Amino acid sequence: MKTVNNLTLVDDDEIFVFLTKKTIEATSLVNLIQVFGNGLDALNFLKKNIDNPDTLPEIIFLDLSMPIMDGWKFLEEYILISPKLGKKITIYICSSSISPDDIKKAKAISVVSDFIIKPITKEKLIETIKNL
C-alpha cells in the first residue's frame, strides 16, 4: 500500500492530536507527522517552505475552531498561496462540528477534499491514504 511521507495535523486540541498521532502511527503508512496548534503557524510553515516541496505535507488534517487563526481563515490564505506551492496538498477538514452548514461550506471550497467528523478512525485514515 502507498505510504505518505509527510502528514500535518492543524489542531489545538491536545487530546485529539495525541490520539490521532497514535492512530496514524498504528497504520505504519505515514513517515512524518507534523503538528501545528493553529492555522497561522501552519500557514507560516507552508510559506517558509514554498520552494522546498519535499518538506511540504501530502495531507493536511485541518480543524475549524482554533485560536489565533481558525481553519476557515487558513483556507482563505491557503487558496492564495497554493498555486505557488511545488506540490499538491490534500486537505481534509477534521472537526467535531456536525453542523450541516459547516459541512456544506467546507465541501464548497475547492481545496477541501472531504469533511471528517472527529475522531478519525484507523479505517478512515487508511481509506484517505488509499484515495490519494
Offer a concise description of the structure.
The chain is α/β, with parallel strands linked by helices and 132 residues long. It contains five helices and five strands, in the order E-H-E-H-E-H-E-H-E-H. The longest helix is centred in the N-terminal third of the chain and has 14 residues.
CATH architecture: 3-Layer(aba) Sandwich
- N to C succession of SSEs: EHEHEHEHEH
What is CATH's topology name?
Answer: Rossmann fold
As a percent range, the share of strand residues is 15-25%
Q: What is the share of helical residues?
A: 25-40%
Count of domains: 1
The CATH homologous superfamily name equals Response regulator
CATH C-level: Alpha Beta
Uncertain segments of ≥5 residues (pLDDT<50)? none
Strand order across the largest sheet: 2-1-3-4-5
Shape: globular
Keywords: Phosphoprotein
Organism: Flavobacterium glaciei
InterPro entries: CheY-like_superfamily (IPR011006), Sig_transdc_resp-reg_receiver (IPR001789), TCS_response_regulator (IPR052893)
Modified residues (4-aspartylphosphate): 63
3D structure, described in words:
The protein is an alpha/beta fold and 132 residues long. It has a single domain, classed as Response regulator (Rossmann fold), CATH 3.40.50. It is 39% helix and 23% strand. The protein has helices spanning 14-27, 39-48, 71-81, 100-107, 122-130, and strands at residues 4-10, 30-36, 59-62, 90-95, 112-117. It has a 5-stranded parallel sheet with strand order 2-1-3-4-5. Helix 4 links the parallel strand 4 and strand 5 (112-117). The modification 4-aspartylphosphate is found at residue 63. InterPro entries: CheY-like_superfamily, Sig_transdc_resp-reg_receiver, TCS_response_regulator. This is Response regulator receiver domain-containing protein. Keywords: Phosphoprotein.
